[in-house]
Amino acid sequence: MSPQVNRCRTGNGANGCFSCSQLDWRWGWATFLAPDTETTENAYTNVEVFQVTPLVGAPVKHVLVVNSQHVRAGDTLVELDDTDLRLAAAQAEAALGQARRKVRQIIANDENLAGQEDVRAADEGTARADLARAQADLAKALNDQARSKKLAAGGWATVQRLDDNETAVLQAQAAVSQGEARVKAAEAARAAAAGARRANQVLFEDTTVDTNPEVIAAQTKLDQAKVDLARAVIRAPIDGIVDQRRVADGQRVQAGTPIMVVVPLQDMYVDANFKEVQLSRVKPGQPVLLKSDLYGSDVFYHGRVAGFAGGTGSAFAAIPAQNATGNWIKVVQRLPVRVRLDPKELARHPLRVGLSMHATIDLSGAR
Questions:
Q1: Which has the closest alpha carbon to 85: 54, 115, 43, 113?
Q2: Per-residue confidence band for 65, with pLDDT thresholds at 50, 70 and 90
Q3: d(C-alpha 260, C-alpha 309), whole Å
Q4: CA atoms of 299 and 217, how far apart (whole Å)
Q5: Residue 72: its pLDDT value, please?
Q6: d(CA 74, CA 89)
Q7: Residue 127 in 3-state DSSP?
Q8: Tens-digit pLDDT profile for residues 170-208
Q9: Residues 242/65, Cβ–Cβ less than 8 Å
Q10: How far is CA 303 from CA 103, 145, 273, in A?
Q11: Do 79 and 232 form a contact (C-beta atoms < 8 A)?
């Protein structure tokens, strides 16, 4: 059987072209004659599309792309109204300044509280001195009372003198009691001042103004506000074609709601659905010859088996078959085989998602 020679598709040959006819021969041989191949027409192009999703909710100011438009990574797709986001950023910046001032005030208060603690310590010293003086006065009053009693026993002291000495003792005892109370009050005041200073020191201990937790929290909120403001401009995540645009000027979008997709044509692959009886010798890495219905026999793609799906199409169907119930008829299942395409060939002849392909796996190297 001889290969059919067609007229050259480039227009350079009068009766035929060896390079073009060679492609036809390779396809016919691989598809129909070669014994060490597996072929299927149940194959379609696919790609991992990138969802474009706003990360902040805001009204749409401008939509800068349309379906089928080619974009590059970083290109602006949508601009959101950032008025509220700018106000939030300004508020967060003001809160940061307020937090810094508050921390500086707390640090400055430490000196004031240290002075108050010194004053309370001096008051305690004064109270102890007053108590010592009252105790001395009491001791003198007791001595005077004892002497007066001895003199009164010999008839040398009057009753009035005894009464005066008794009154002096009572007054001195009262002064001692008052002095002791003042000492306790001074001790309590000094302890309170020390506690207030320690409580204030905890607020800035082992930190600076910039490393204080309150300042860090305020700085974090400002950073988040700036990030949200930057997200008001939605950019393309990757090179590709815009599709499924679901957003318009003036519409209010919510965070997490997809508004379009970007299809990376350069990462296109083929899902070839082979029958289970065809896959016993198919392994990752084997070469695959592919032809697209879009270009026909003019263009061939060379790919490699990348891997196998985790289950058949029927296993992952919305309503999977229940083969354990009722009458059963065996149906040969198909397992998707992913074929990785040559990026250079894709660049020369771009494909789109869902196009029909013919795939032939070369098993000549399989054991």
A1: 54
A2: very high
A3: 27
A4: 60
A5: 96
A6: 24
A7: helix
A8: 888 888 888 889 888 888 888 888 888 788 778 778 778
A9: yes
A10: 64, 122, 15
A11: yes
What's 365's DSSP letter?
Answer: T
Cβ atoms of 243 and 68 within 8 Å: the answer is yes
The residue-averaged pLDDT of 143-157 equals 73
Say if residue 166 is exposed, middle or buried (CB neighbours under 10 Å; 0-12, 13-18, 19+): middle
**Cβ neighbours of 199 (radius 10 Å):** 10
Given strand 233-235, what is the order of strands in its sheet? 233-235, 76-80, 58-63, 252-253
User: pTM score > 0.85 for this model?
Assistant: no
Three-state DSSP at 233 gives: strand
The 10 Å CB-count burial string (b at 16+, else e) for 218-231 is bbebbeebeebbeb
How confident is residue 71, by pLDDT bands cut at 50, 70 and 90?
very high
Write the burial class of residue 241 (CB in 10 Å: 0-12 exposed, 13-18 middle, 19+ buried): buried
In the chain, where does DSSP find H-type helix? 18-28, 83-153, 159-202, 213-230, 343-348
Token pair recorded at residue 259: 């508004």
Q: Tell me which residue of 38, 28, 20, 41 sits closest to 2, measured CA to CA.
A: 28
